[in-house]
Specification:
12 helices; about 0% strand; mainly alpha
């Protein structure tokens, strides 16, 4: 190879890259610690951006309605739209809490009151089964528990681990305070972002054009626009879908005269925000609560949810999402599983639109590369 200036630059770049990789591998734990520390510093900013993005979906709709009936250049447009958005969001949260908490309290009280009868019924069913199969008789009442010994063991455990318990309590309290403080700062930052969103977008664009080549800036802006459309469509669609599913579930349960209609419908609607697995979780909890009251009604509830989900998957979801969420079903499931394993419920929520953006970008790039090649007769992805 000719050792001209171009090749020398390439060799130098390879040496620098290899040295950087070596240093990263050598100090990997420290680097991760520093990155987590930096991430914790920017946590309020990240939370503020996420809150602003979700609130902007509603505020933009209010502003569009405002423009149809009132002057578009009114100075009251932005602050009133923001106030209406916050009012709507807090009203929804209040209604949900007002429906769920009393119902959960009443359900727990009912289960506690009826628990002895559940045990007696379970004992009769088990004994009937074992008697039929000649296994023998089981008397659950013969099981004795030494509560005094159990209490002494618990007291000894608490006494021996009081220091660690205090430290754990202090850590949990500190973590809760930090989380609350970050959410509060994030909420304040989100309000500023929403009020001055056009100015912030202009500043970011000027910054990109000042330090990045124009072609790359155009690509970045295209990806940003695609991400905004996909995430906005996902947030709007999931919210509307949750409301519709909750109303459909409540109406069906009232018609079928099933218990806990308000609480279970709210739970099913909220869990449907999580694609694929959310509906299964809400159905399982609802069926369990109804089963404790009437097992036959639990079967009817499951059959009703199956019919409702088929209606939602074939009629409601395609209308709400359209072709924007062009992610095949198998990849939706994979995205939810991976997102849940990495970041829990939040990961489940953001994994689908994120993977949709990546899928659309990869699909367009693959189809572009195949055009004019020997594979041009293959159907596009």
């Amino acid at each position: 190879m000719d050792l001209n200036s171009t090749n020398m630059k390439k060799i130098a770049m390879l040496i620098v890259f290899a040295a950087i990789v070596f240093l990263i591998g050598l100090h990997f734990p420290k680097i991760i610690t520093y990155l987590l520390y930096i991430f914790s510093i920017f946590t309020p900013l990240i939370l503020g951006f996420c809150i602003a993005f979700v609130l902007n979906v509603f505020m933009r709709s209010i502003e569009n309605v405002w423009g149809k009936f009132l002057k578009k250049d009114s100075k009251l447009k932005r602050p009133l739209s923001l106030i209406l958005t916050l009012f709507f969001v807090f009203l929804v949260i209040f209604i949900v809490m007002f429906l769920i908490i009393p119902e959960i309290s009443r359900t727990i009280s009912t289960i506690v009151e009826l628990f002895p009868s559940y045990i007696n019924t379970l004992e009769k069913n088990i004994n009937a089964f074992v008697e039929t199969n000649s296994i023998g008789y089981i008397d659950l009442s013969s099981l004795s528990v030494d509560f005094e010994k159990m209490a002494d063991s618990v007291a000894a455990f608490i006494s021996n681990s009081s220091e660690s318990f205090f430290n754990a309590t202090l850590n949990v309290t500190t973590s809760i305070f930090n989380t609350f403080f970050n959410i509060l700062l994030g909420f304040i930052l989100s309000l500023y972002m929403l009020v001055h969103k056009e100015k912030l977008c202009r500043h970011l664009k000027k910054l990109l054009y000042a330090y990045v080549k124009k072609e790359r800036v155009e690509k970045i802006l295209n990806v940003t626009d695609l991400s905004n459309r996909v995430f906005s469509k996902f947030v709007t669609g999931q919210m509307l879908e949750a409301v519709l599913i909750g109303l459909m579930c409540f109406t069906g349960m009232v018609i079928l005269q099933l218990p806990y209609a308000a609480m279970i419908s709210t739970l099913v609607g909220f869990t449907s925000l999580i694609p694929v697995v959310g509906a299964l979780f809400g159905t399982a909890v609802g069926a369990l609560l109804i089963f404790l009251v009437n097992p036959i009604q639990a079967v009817w509830f499951i059959l009703f949810i199956i019919v409702m989900n088929q209606t939602e998957n074939n009629l409601i979801y395609p209308k709400l999402m359209g072709k924007t969420m062009g992610l095949p079903g198998i990849w939706v499931l994979v995205a939810v599983i991976i997102g849940g394993r990495l970041y829990g419920i939040i990961g489940m929520l953001i994994s689908v639109p994120l993977c949709s953006v990546l899928y659309i970008l990869l699909r367009d790039e693959v189809n572009r590369r195949l055009r004019g090649s020997t594979f041009e007769d293959i159907e596009e992805i």
